[in-house]
Design brief:
Blueprint lengths: L11 H13 L7 E4 L3 H10 L4 E4 L1 H10 L4 H11 L8 H18 L1 H14 L10 H4 L3 H17 L5 H20 L6 H5 L16 H24 L1
Parallel strand pairs: 1-2
């Protein structure tokens, strides 16, 4: 945990002030920030952590795409088309699958396709990092789970007598989570060091032709959607 703050509203000003506070505590060398597509947060990240990449949370992106669909059935189809993209094992396949997914969305939900196509550079920013970190870099699920726990604990109190009392409760929750995270293998020094290893080899260009990659990507998405439909029907 790097910090917490109580603000009246989620805006550019509140996020910029919070991130500057983190920077003032000598947090530097930030390479990637993962979040939802809140415009104020994105602007604050660009200003405070200049040079860092921004990863649009894959889960939030899929929800944004599904929101453009009208019926429940179409929402499920949009989600099933997008989901396998982020399970690809290599960068070339992930990019090919993303393009195929956009084409498939264009056929069934053009508005969702527009959202996905516009988001491509930010949705795939995680591919520039070691594959062993992709699962955690492409979403902000860790933060979402922390938010859920804060809401669960604060719901009991309902009304806080002061801002300080809210900070104390949230701070206690975050300290507990911070202890759990510090014991996690993912946050071990050697694992984190992979992200900063200057000897990290650049991504090797795929030797497979683009047409072959596209065909493989299409088969993978179709197989995934068909499996999901069979499971739902069972």
């Amino acid at each position: 945990m790097l910090g917490l703050a109580v603000v009246d509203t989620e805006s550019y000003d509140s996020w910029a002030g919070f991130l500057r506070g983190i920077g003032d505590r000598s947090v530097h060398g930030v390479q990637l920030v993962t979040s939802d597509a809140h415009k104020g947060l994105i602007g604050a990240i660009e200003e405070v952590f200049q040079g860092a990449s921004w990863q649009r949370c894959a889960v939030h992106l899929m929800r944004d795409c599904m929101r453009e669909a009208g019926s429940r059935a179409l929402k499920r189809r949009v989600g099933r088309i997008m989901s396998p993209v982020f399970r690809a094992k290599d960068a070339a396949t992930a990019r090919a699958m993303y393009h195929v997914a956009c084409d498939m969305l264009r056929d069934c939900c053009p508005k969702a396709a527009d959202v996905a196509e516009e988001a491509e550079p930010d949705a795939l920013a995680y591919l520039a990092f070691p594959p062993s970190h992709w699962k955690r870099l492409r979403t902000n699920n860790l933060q979402e789970r922390a938010n859920h726990e804060i809401k669960r604990r604060s719901r009991v109190v309902q009304v806080f007598p002061s801002e300080k009392s809210l900070e104390r409760l949230v701070g206690a929750v975050m300290c507990e989570l911070d202890e759990q995270w510090s014991e996690s293998r993912y946050f071990a020094y050697g694992k984190i060091q992979e992200l900063y290893d200057k000897r990290r080899a650049a991504e090797a260009a795929s030797e497979r032709p683009a047409a072959e990659l596209e065909e493989v990507a299409r088969k993978m998405i179709v197989a995934s959607t068909e499996l999901a439909e069979k499971v739902e029907a069972a």
